[in-house]
Design brief:
This protein is of the alpha/beta class. The protein has eight helices and twelve strands.
């Protein structure tokens, strides 16, 4: 079987490295890939956001399975497009990807179904967000861009002045463009952060090994959030 991986980061590098070990995999491609991935897979010069071009490539190279790494093409509907073209693909469809594509949507869903989550408020106007902050007692707070920001849209603020600066940066300065046109202001929580993953077809599910993702740049978690500096699994902080 020939396999295509969509993406060009460390996540996709790991997917390529692991999937190519399967005895049934003959040829593996990664779009757009990167210099490191190119040592393990073919990296055609195609746009990962051009779904018709990707579908044509899949047919030309007789690719039997496509795996999508990044959030953006999932939110943009690559799975829906491939399924409509009868091409096998692994990943959530556009509707399910909203859980990652919109923090407001995911927080509203958790509130609706009583899924435990940090306390929050949502805003689409900078003045309303700043007014809300002015009524809070001094405390650490988290300000999050609603949309996708390459893992950098969650700003942990040690005090309310920093939170006001974060709101201004997201909503006025547009540092993440349209992703920050709406924001979530969220309760700051302490403790170990653990990621739990599940694969589902909408009916059955399979949980994977819990992991810890380290997002902040610089040693000692002193920098800003990134898309991920590294991760490991399993983690000792979560037991069955």
């Amino acid at each position: 079987m020939n396999v295509l991986i969509i993406g060009g980061g460390g996540r996709e590098h790991t997917l390529v490295w692991k999937i190519r070990q399967h005895p049934e995999v003959k040829q593996i491609y990664c779009i757009p890939g990167n210099g490191g991935i190119a040592a393990l897979a073919g990296c055609p010069a195609l746009d990962a956001g051009d779904f018709p071009a990707l579908a044509s490539f899949v047919r030309e190279r007789e690719i039997g399975f496509t795996v999508v790494g990044p959030e953006q093409p999932l939110v943009d509907g690559i799975v829906d497009y491939f399924e409509a073209e009868k091409l096998p693909i692994f990943g959530p469809n556009r509707s399910a990807a909203r859980l990652e594509g919109s923090k407001i949507f995911s927080k509203q869903l958790m509130a609706k179904y009583d899924i435990p989550t940090a306390g929050f408020a949502e805003f689409d106007r900078v003045e309303a967000a700043l007014k809300y902050l002015s009524h809070l007692p001094e405390q650490p707070i988290v300000v999050k861009a609603d949309g996708l920001a390459a893992g950098k849209g969650s700003i942990v603020c040690p005090d309310l002045n920093s939170a006001r600066e974060a709101v201004d940066a997201l909503m006025r300065q547009k540092i993440f463009a349209a992703a920050g046109s709406k924001v979530v202001i969220e309760e700051f929580m302490t403790g170990e952060e653990v990621s739990i993953f599940a694969i589902t077809d909408g009916r059955d599910y399979l949980t994977l090994t819990p992991a810890q993702d380290f997002k902040r740049a610089l040693d000692g978690d002193r920098g800003k959030n990134t898309g991920g500096m590294g991760s490991y699994a399993p983690t000792p902080f979560l037991t069955p």
